[in-house]
Design goal:
heterodimer, A: alpha/beta, three-stranded mixed β-sheet, 6 helices, 47% helix, elongated, B: mainly alpha, 1 helix, 0% strand, rod-shaped
Chain lengths: 260, 30
């Protein structure tokens, strides 16, 4: 029986080799289509669930990954939308976290606001790199101030030199300098102090050659304590840097924010 | 890339690879 079947196949192969190969390919294509219909939705749902978990872990609530192409077909390539109010560094981090989920083929942003295409993506990566450098410098040392004053302790001069040189590759970016305090004392005074300290750091960086109009200083008082710390912990006194986005520097007549 | 296209490409490539291997074995056996 097996011998006869083998012989029949040999005869068919010799007589119609191309037709056989093509009909095999057609059968495979039909099986592939059927299995996409049968298993695709469950597969994509599983990937989406993991992507949402990764998004939440990265702190990107508001960003929606969509696993549907423009024509409405299911895909493993996530298109990210929303989260416009989150800063670009966080958005990039969330996109990275989703891209690393097993099964996700890639990510891209749907909105034009964040910039599309390779150059914008590269700029974003550069900005992020800059910020990571600064964070690495400030992880082990902090910019110190005199007690209850916005004057920078002279011991922190060298540290500011390092921060300035780490920010230099990001020239052309908007760099936010945010001051924080602990919850000791009057909140109004804390807010003013954190703002004044951020301003001092901003000007210290300007003195080191960072353009003033790319630097934004603000203070949050004790409103944003470090994760895992109580608001009264002195370790909450700090200056944070975030590289917001890459943009051409446009000289403005007034580069300091108005009152309020 | 839509999932259905990915599936088609993957399975047809697998089919082609199997066909190639089968042809090699068949050729060796004579």
């Amino acid at each position: 029986m097996r011998k006869r079947l083998g012989a029949a196949i040999a005869v068919l192969v010799q007589a119609y080799p191309i037709a056989l190969v093509l009909s095999g390919a057609f059968a495979v294509a039909v099986i592939a289509a059927a299995s996409t219909v049968a298993h695709g939705p469950a597969l994509v749902a599983g990937i989406e669930r993991k992507a949402l978990a990764a998004r939440d872990a990265a702190g990107g609530r508001g960003i929606e990954p969509r696993f549907v192409t423009a024509s409405g077909a299911l895909t493993r390539h996530a298109q990210l939308a929303g989260g416009e109010r989150l800063d670009d560094a966080l958005r990039a981090r969330v996109a990275g976290a989703i891209a690393r989920v097993p099964g996700v083929a890639g990510v891209s942003w749907l909105s034009a606001a964040t910039g599309q295409g390779a150059p914008a993506e590269r700029d974003k990566a550069d900005s992020l790199h800059c910020q990571q450098d600064v964070e690495a410098i400030l992880k082990v040392r902090t910019i110190r101030f005199s007690e209850a004053s916005a004057a920078i302790d002279p011991a922190s001069d060298a540290l500011l030199d390092e921060v300035a040189s780490a920010l230099r590759p990001c020239l052309g970016s908007i760099i936010a300098v945010t001051g924080h305090t602990d919850a000791a004392g009057d909140e109004g005074a804390n807010l003013a102090l954190s703002r004044a300290r951020a301003e001092t750091v901003r000007w210290a960086l300007v003195a080191r050659g960072i353009p003033a109009d790319g630097l934004r200083a603000s203070g949050k008082g004790s409103q944003a304590p470090l994760e895992g710390l109580t608001p009264t912990d002195p370790a909450n006194r700090r200056i944070e840097f975030s590289v917001i986005r890459k943009m051409p520097i446009r000289p403005t007549p007034v580069d300091t924010p108005g009152p309020g | 890339m839509p999932l259905w296209l990915e599936m088609q490409v993957l399975m047809l490539l697998t089919y082609a690879a199997g066909l190639g291997l089968g042809w090699l074995v068949f050729k060796r056996k004579g």
